[in-house]
Design goal:
alpha+beta; Herpes Virus-1; 2 domains; five-stranded antiparallel beta sheet; 9 strands; nucleus
Length: 223
Amino acid sequence: FEKLCSISLSHINVYACLVCGKYFQGRGLKSHAYIHSVQLSHHVFLNLHTLKFYCLPDNYEIIDSSLEDITYVLKPTFTAQHIAHLDKQAKLSRAYDGTTYLPGIVGLNNIKANDYANAVLQALSNVPPLRNYFLEEENYRRIQRPPGDIMFLLRFGELMRKLWNPRNFKAHVSPHEMLQAVVLCSKKNFQITKQGDGVEFLSWFLNALHTALGGTKRKKKSE
């Protein structure tokens, strides 16, 4: 889900409570996270931007290697060597809930009426050249484009890495943030709450990726 404080609805300085899973802003005195820790005795929080863990209300950083699995699920990374072997050494992974799954072949949550988009996103995630490019964030993170284009690329890359993550907690992934970027970039032509045409969505999505990566509509500039 979108990384917003469940009380203030702010996306700034948001922490996840590792006991109940809710998001709260800040960790200082009178902050929503601090108050939550005192009222419910939930003490371990994760900053969703820095991926650092803190104990509240004492407000000290927790450094423990056993928590690395949590940060990897939130932000999985892939080396060039790992990517090169994705199709050569495919093997089943076991999620923390005991479910077995094949990385890259996992479900996407149907939030309301976004199954048409899910089908396209899953298909694109299994196109090796496209997949390999977006699994490495360095390929596009520094592209000089308007903020909306950068957000679109980052969200697609994040979703791609989560779909191919061999250490997922569950055998399905939420596309919520990717779909929010779609709604924004398509000017609400494609929505989460309204069924759309898969072919039209595929055409728009590929053109949106092309433009966000610096392409133009001129034929001589297109591949």
